[in-house]
Amino acid sequence: MKYCLDCDWSLNAADEPSQRDRSQAAIDHHVETGHTIDSSESIVRPTAPDVPGSVLVRDLVPSSD
Ligand SMILES: [Zn+2]
Q1: What's the angle, vertex CA 12, arms to CA 7 and CA 15, rounded to 5?
Q2: How does pLDDT run across 34-47, given as a tens digit for each residue?
Q3: Dist. CA 60 → ligand 1 center (Å)
Q4: Distance 28 CA to ligand 1 centre (A)
Q5: Is 10 helix (H, G, I), strand (E, B) or coil?
Q6: Domain residue spans in the chain?
Q7: What confidence tens digit (pLDDT) does each residue in 24-33 have?
Q8: N or C: which end of the chain has fewer CB within 10 A?
Q9: Rounded to an integer, what distance in angstroms lies between the CA atom of residue 6 and that of residue 16?
C-alpha cells in the first residue's frame, strides 16, 4: 500500500488494484500537498516508520523542486 506520513491519505490494493495507478495517485498527492508518501508491502499502515522522510519519495518522484 501507499500511505501518507503527514495525513490520513492511503491507498491499498483493495482501493486501487493497479499498482501503476496507486503510484500515480501517490505522486499526485505528494505534488498537490507536499506530503511525504511511504509505501509498504503490508496492507496495514505501519505506526512507526524508521526510515527518514527524505528518502521515502525518491522512487516516486523523479525530480521534485
Ligand atoms: Zn497527505
Answers
A1: 100
A2: 999 998 876 566 66
A3: 14
A4: 10
A5: strand
A6: 2-56
A7: 999 999 999 9
A8: C
A9: 21
pLDDT at 58: 60
Alpha carbon of 56 to ligand 1 centroid (Å): 13
Q: Are 59 and 27 in contact (CB under 8 A)?
A: no
**Distance of CA 42 from the midpoint of ligand 1 (Å):** 19
> Ligand 1 being an ion, which residues bring their Cβ within 5 A of it?
4, 6-7, 9, 33, 35
Contact by Cβ (8 Å): 1, 45: yes
Q: Residue 42 and residue 29: Cα distance in Å, rounded? A: 20
Is the confidence at residue 62, as pLDDT, over 80? no
Cell numbers given for 64:
521534485
Query: How much of the chain, in percent, has pLDDT values that exceed 90?
Result: 48
